[in-house]
Design a protein that fits this description.
This protein has 319 residues and is α/β, with parallel strands linked by helices. The chain has eleven helices and nine strands. It is 44% helix and 19% strand. The strands form two sheets. Strands 3-2-1-4-5 form a five-stranded parallel β-sheet, sandwiched between helices. Strand 2, helix 3 and strand 3 form a beta-alpha-beta unit. The two termini are 37 Å apart. The structure holds xanthosine-5'-monophosphate. Xanthosine-5'-monophosphate binds at residues 102, 150, 152-154, 196, 198-200, 240, 274, 311, 315-317. Its EC number is 6.3.5.2.
Length: 319
């Protein structure tokens, strides 16, 4: 694509000019944005870039492994992979408030990242995969007298504390353009086309208290749902689809026994930038198949419901 090829060339020159021969550190979230930013910057300045992947243990099934193999295997980009799941999950114990969960994860992410940055001798620049909608949402949410709807942890925080200049090559782009740029840079389609995933990860898809056990249950249900969506050929028509594990138990019956287990909610929306969204209208047969599989295959879930709320008035995530 001509436009993205041009954009790539221009940005690479800009990055080289901005950074010179100094060092850049980039935090990978597991998502597309930070990965595309990192690959672009690596193309510009090579091994002056080090990536740090802080794994909070709240990723989707197989996601952490995918990021590591993409960076180390495919691109050979220097990558520090920190398994901080115990730290995150311990700290989340007893916490049920959505914003406090986000704030804790954001702060802990910064702490771990900062420690790792020190270990590798620091850097002059911090790279982030901030997109245009992140820029507007964080301004409009926190700029005026209006309340913060959701604090997005991938904007702000780090730069002030670490006293580093920012490299944000994707600041003018929307999600679809980032994907296009990712393809232009040779990222595998399965990675580039992946649905967006929030920084706080599964923590905000487990309303109420998060635990490793509940994260494991949710990961299994989510993987089944996504597998069925892929098999039905619907993955690319959907902006985001995911399972939510509710802090509600209901009664069910299985074989000749009574069950008393958690409810799982399924969400799927279409959108162009995440600011507004419509519900994806699955047919009943599809939903029935997913519900049956989840209940049969995932211990701890005995009821599945589908969320029919558009944004607005709902948000895409449940917290
Ligand atoms: P909402 O739920 O606000 O989501 O309608 C809009 C888009 O933003 C993502 N999202 C987040 N991303 N940190 C992130 O990095 C967050 O705290 C966060 N909350 C929501 C959400 O997945 C959707 O794509």
């Amino acid at each position: 694509d001509w436009t993205m090829a041009e954009f790539r060339k221009t940005k690479i020159e800009e990055i080289r000019e901005q950074v010179g021969d100094r060092k850049v550190i980039c935090g990978l979230s597991g998502g597309v944005d930070s990965a595309v930013a990192a690959v672009l910057i690596h193309e510009a300045i090579g091994d002056q870039l080090t990536c740090v992947f802080v794994d909070h243990g709240l990723m989707r099934m197989g996601e952490a492994e995918q990021v590591v193999s993409l960076f180390r295997g495919h691109y050979n980009i220097p990558l520090v992979h920190v398994d901080a799941s115990t730290l995150f999950l311990k700290g989340l114990e007893g916490e049920t408030d959505p914003e406090r969960k986000r704030k804790f994860i954001g702060k802990t992410f910064i702490d771990v990242f900062e420690d790792e940055a020190k270990k590798i001798g620091g850097a002059d620049f911090l790279a982030q995969g901030t997109l245009y909608p992140d820029v507007i949402e964080s301004v409009s949410f926190t700029g005026g007298p209006s309340v913060t709807i959701k604090s997005h942890h991938n904007v702000g925080g780090l730069p002030e504390r670490m006293d580093m200049k920012l490299v944000e090559p994707l600041r003018e782009l929307f999600k679809d353009e980032v994907r296009e740029l990712g393809r232009e840079l040779g990222l595998p389609e399965a990675f580039v086309g992946r649905h967006p995933f929030p920084g706080p990860g599964l923590a905000i898809r487990i309303p109420g208290e998060v635990s490793r056990e509940r994260a494991d249950i949710l990961r299994k249900a989510d993987a089944i749902y996504l597998e069925e969506i892929r098999n039905a050929g619907l993955y690319d028509a959907i902006w985001q689809a995911f399972a939510v594990l509710l802090p509600v138990k209901t009664v069910g019956v299985m074989g000749d026994g009574r069950t008393y287990d958690s409810v799982c909610a399924l969400r799927a929306v279409t959108s162009t930038d995440g600011m507004t969204a419509d519900v994806y209208p699955f047919d009943g047969q599809f939903l029935g198949r997913v519900a049956t599989r989840i209940i049969n295959e995932v211990r701890g879930i005995n009821r599945v419901v589908y969320d029919y709320t558009s944004k607005p008035p709902g948000t895409i995530e449940w917290e």
